[in-house]
Amino acid sequence: MKFAVVLLACLFAVAFANEEADVVKEFREVNKEDFKYGFELTNKIRAFQEGHLQDEKTWLVKGEYEFVTKDGKHIKVTYSADEYGYHPKVEHSH
């Protein structure tokens, strides 16, 4: 769960450091053995993440986030995280 909290904090920091924005959608569900959350902002930043305990010590997490850079490029990152690390896939478009 510590990983999920850190990643959530990083995503919010990126979102709000970019510019001020209002929340369009937001949800979260946190349980002892699983979680999911997501948000969408008026500045076109969007994120979703979910995870569950595989065993007593291992979280399996997957998610995505996307945003538009100041020069108009659309960036989307999909990822998973497991006992072997963080596995991102980055897509760029104009």
Automatic annotation (TrEMBL):
Keyword Transmembrane helix among record annotations: no
PROSITE patterns xrefs: CHIT_BIND_RR_1, CHIT_BIND_RR_2
Signal peptide positions on this chain: 1-17
Protein encoded by which gene: LOC131801691
Membrane spanning stretches: none
Keywords: Cuticle, Signal
Signal listed as a keyword: yes
Superkingdom of source: Eukaryota
Organism of this sequence: Musca domestica (House fly)
Name listed for the protein in its UniProt record: Larval cuticle protein 9-like
